[in-house]
Each structure stands twice: as structure tokens, then as C-alpha cells.
Amino acid sequence: MPTPTLSVAMSVYNGERFLAEAIESILAQSFADFEFLILDDGSTDSSRAIIERYAARDPRIRPFVRENRGLIVSLNQLIDEAHAPLIARMDADDISLPHRFERQIAFLKAHPDYGVVGTWTEDIDENGDSYPVNGAEHPVDHAGLLRAIAQCEPLLCHPVVMFRRDIVQAVGGYHAAFRHCEDLDLWLRLANRTQMASIPERLIRYRHYPHQVSSRHAVEQQTGAAIARMAYRERLAGRPDPTATLETLPPLDRLDSLFGRDGVTHEVRGMIAGALLYSPIGMRGAGFEMLLRHLADGGSHKGLWRTVARLFRFGTPVRAIRLASALLRTPARPPQPQTEAA
Description:
The protein has helices at 19-27, 47-57, 71-81, 100-110, 142-150, 165-170, 182-190, 213-216, 218-236, 255-259, 264-276, 280-284, 286-296, 304-313, 317-329; strands spanning 6-12, 34-41, 61-66, 86-89, 95-96, 114-124, 162-164, 195-207. By secondary structure, it is α/β, with parallel strands linked by helices. The protein has an 8-stranded mixed sheet with strand order 3-2-1-4-7-6-8-5, sandwiched between helices.
């Protein structure tokens, strides 16, 4: 078989609810010169049967079935198995619009200095209805992406990216330590090696629902994201990345030792607490205790009285009262400007 222009990489774990619609959206693309790699990561539902049914119909589908090993291992395996020089990501619960591949391939052909390109998203709920999202759109050029890194804004939507395989392999693919934020860590490691951006067209219907991974693992995700940003700052300052060879991230209290200076744990805890203020799952779980610890260590009060009111709305009045008491006990301190490590 001739080498395809594009390899599509999808990892599936118990994705039966939306899987058929996701697969069909790829098979219906206006650009057809691709192989479709679908890896069943030890599903216990009907995902495997769905994949095998579609593979029997379309020879572009290359199915892989094995025991559960997690998304990062699966994505790295799919990159290694890919035959094409370009790889498009796809998740089992989203819907790619018909001209997605056509637009992204045209962009990468016209911009050889760009190694990764995403698109804007149409956000939907579990029923396919519009899902309201606040915040900035994904950056449309690399300069905008660098500004978004500095401002801790969204960079790229992971399931709609297309990237050059050799560039991602050159930085070691996805790193095992950054579970649930493996994409952010990868974009930050690529930021000074290639250019990245998103096409300002809504070429994927990106689904939000209560039991997706980003909802269930909010605290772990934000912890990894904060550490990934600290590692980015180390690289930017010309120092070795202390996370580069880690298989798992250390407890927060060991971050000063890992990075070789005082204050890293405090800063990371503050970043995590700030990111979880609007998360019902985070504030109902371990994120709340992290917020109290950060406050006790001298963290800023900024926005926290609004968080007290939000905790009542989240149905956690005891935690609202605990936060109000902590705010009254600790002196208010103005937020300190963030500075890059020397």
C-alpha cells in the first residue's frame, strides 16, 4: 500500500456512547488519503466490537486491541505505528466537521515553519446541544500562542490538532508524568522548537459532559499543568528541565528540592488553587484543602470572597463557612507580581 498523507490517531477506552459518531465523522472527511489508527485500550464495554465493525467496512482503519495501559502510552504507540508524516488527533467523543483535514493539511503545506495546527471549536454537551464556554479563543498564530502561555490561557484543543510526526518524536512524544495534562506539557516543550497555532474556523464539535476525564481528574490535571508551566520557565531560562525524565510527578512538598530553589511549592500550590476556584469537582474535592493551605501560607485573598458565595452555590455550605473563617483569620495581602525565575 502507498504511504498515506495522513495518519489519524484515536485511543478509545469505554467509549461506546459516542464512538460510532466520532468514527463516521472521520470517514466522511473531504480529504480521504489517510489511514485511521484506532486503539482499544482495554475497554470493558462494546467499544471493541464497534471498532471491528467499522474496520471490516473500511480498509483505511487499522485497529489495535490490548490491555488497558492509559492514554499517554496509547498515544505514543499510535505515533510509533503511524505510516504518514502527518498525524491528526481525534477523541472518541467528538465530531470532526467534513473539511477539517482539508483545511489543516492546506495550512501545513502553506506554512512549513509550523509543526502543529489546531482549529477553533464548536462546544457541545452530551446531547449535542450548544455548550456555553467563556474565555479566549485559541491563538491563531505563534506569537499569540506565546502570549497565551504567559497569561495561562488555552493553547490548543488537543483532539483537533494535526502535527508533523518527526517534530513530536524529536521531543520524546508525550511524557508519562503529566497524566491528564499531557497535551499542555507537549505544547510547552514544542513552543521553542516549532511554531503552533489554530485555524480560526470551528472544525470540530468538542463535547463536554460530567464524566469525561477532564472533569473527573480536575485536581490532578491542574497540578500537572502548574508543574509543566514551571518546567517551561526553567527551559526558557536556559536551565535543565527537572521533569524531563520523571515517570510520575513528586508530591507538592518536594518541588523546592526538585527545582533546586525555595518557593516553587508555594507558587505551584497558588497556581493550582487559582485554577480550581470555578471547578465544582475541584472545590468539593482535594482542591479545597489545597486552597486553604495556600491561604495559610500567605496566599492572596483576591477573588476568594466570591469563592465563598460560589461554594454555597456548589452545595457545600460547610466549606463556604470554613473558607470565610480562614479569610477572616489571615491578613489580606496584595497579590505579588509573577516574575520569571532568575
